[in-house]
Amino acid sequence: MSRLQTIIRSLKNGRRILGPIASISVNNSHGIRSYSQIEVQKDAKLPMPLPVSTQNEQENEDTKYEENIKNSILNHALEFVPKSGWSVESLSSGAKAAGYPTITHGLFPNGGGDLVHYFNIKCNEQLVEQMKTWPKMELKGTTVPSQFIENAIMTRLTMIDPFKSTWPKAMAIQTMPNNVSNCLATLLSLVDDICYHSGDRSVDFNWYTRRVGLAGIYKAAELFYLTDNTPNSSATRGFVASRIRDAQLIQAALNLNPVAAAPQTLTAAFTTAKNILGINTLK
């Protein structure tokens, strides 16, 4: 019987599959079979890892795909908020409406908090697009673009109108420890966008005072708006205008005597921060 050698090599999904490799010789006269040492193919090529850039692109695509799914569910979930509130039930209904299993709400660990956060981001983005078309002015000294800020705050508040009856619950959800960071992030983003698009390019202490003051005005106006039943929310607009005038007086005081006003300003900023977080309401 002649000497046999079998080599099987194939590639599948980038993995090399080797069959048994051996040399077999048979001595017919003595009936003895002997096996030579298995030969390893030195020219065999191992699969090459993907380049780092390709891996990053794949990760980015996966992240974008997941974000698209989340945004689709959240956007559909808003339709159910008037009935089910800012809750897991609304997220489940939103998932079903978007074509996904209702259990997909598990993508949102903060439940209704994630839904409120999405709504705030969406409204802020819509406000920015509108403000880009509004006339701007350069801020100098004590100048405050009162009308611009008033219109910005009122425009943002009216975006809550479809969910006005459920918004007190949304505000309570935002004060929960696991939602506070998102709440502050969207609030600070809102006031920064308003200041920037109104023409504020300050790089001094005014940068901070304007934004802290505006954050306090917005949160106070938000509470007032929930109880306002006047046509076109005229009472809320008057409230906002009054708070802006107060801010102008504070700004003027800071410019006249910034050193003397600093302690009062820091105290006011601390109080505003507590109001934003709802700490003052806790016992």
Automatic annotation (TrEMBL):
- The reply on keyword Iron-sulfur is no
Q: Which GO terms describe its biological process?
A: ubiquinone biosynthetic process
Q: Which InterPro entries match?
A: COQ9_C, COQ9_HTH, Ubiq_biosynth_COQ9
**Protein name per the record:** Ubiquinone biosynthesis protein
Function of the protein: Membrane-associated protein that warps the membrane surface to access and bind aromatic isoprenes with high specificity, including ubiquinone (CoQ) isoprene intermediates and presents them directly to Coq7, therefore facilitating the Coq7-mediated hydroxylase step. Participates in the biosynthesis of coenzyme Q, also named ubiquinone, an essential lipid-soluble electron transporter for aerobic cellular respiration.
User: What NCBIfam families does the record point to?
Assistant: diverge_rpsU (TIGR02396)
- Domain named Ubiquinone biosynthesis protein COQ9 HTH: residues: 66-96
Domain COQ9 C-terminal per the UniProt entry, residue ranges: 181-248
Tell me the superkingdom of the source: Eukaryota
Which gene holds the coding sequence for this protein?
A: LOC113496685
Q: Which GO terms describe its cellular component?
A: mitochondrial inner membrane
State the species of origin.
Answer: Trichoplusia ni
Where does the protein end up? Answer: Mitochondrion
